[in-house]
Amino acid sequence: MTQISRQFKIVVLGKSGVGKTCLSLRFCQEKFYQTQDATVGASLLTKTLKIEGNEIKMQLWDTAGQERYESMTPMYFRSSAAAVVVYDITSKQSFEKAKFWINQFQNFFSEDKTIFLVGNKLDLSDKRKVETSVANEFAQRNGFVFFEASAKTGDNVVPIFEKLANVLVQETQETPKTQKQILQHNIKVAEKEKQKDCC
Fold first, then answer.
1. Sign of CA dihedral 119, 122, 127, 131
2. In this model, does residue 2 exceed pLDDT 60?
3. Is residue 181 part of a domain?
4. Which strands sit side by side in the sheet containing 42-51, from one edge to the other?
5. pTM tops 0.85
6. Which of 69, 82, 95, 97 would bridge 87 by S-S if both were Cys, CB 3.0 to 4.6 A apart?
7. Is 29 a member of any domain?
8. What whole-number distance in Å separates Cα of residue 166 and Cα of residue 187?
């Protein structure tokens, strides 16, 4: 039996209709539905990837994009490792909304979290309203990973989540060392304070 060595909670954010559910389904189940009901609250999809010999379980929390559910969405941020923020390349409004969700996600945490910015509906590039260069520059300026993809054709969908899994695995390998260093520093400080008190 294969043992899951790590699992990561990922929230998928964005305006209603940008294709969050379609992207999640394409990655997790290799399916695409031309018509898709709007998500209510959030739905959970999972997929296991093999990264560096380890089985990595990706838990995708596909959140509702409709405005009436906006106040509920942050409740799904808790304990998430990263966010995939989606916009529609044929809609400038959805790109601006992506910025809103990025701010919401960042403000929820006291520490930096991994954010992937994804322009969906690449199959409709002839109707593009958000230039690749604009989105890419925004992502680079803010330290996000940027992709464009098509949930309909499947183009570039898997690479998004494979890259995300690799980034998260690397982060977890680095984090214990950092935490250990912090702990060692705190112990040294405490010992110095103790020595001062003794004198």
1. positive
2. no
3. no
4. 42-51, 54-63, 4-14, 82-88, 114-120, 145-148
5. no
6. 95
7. yes
8. 33
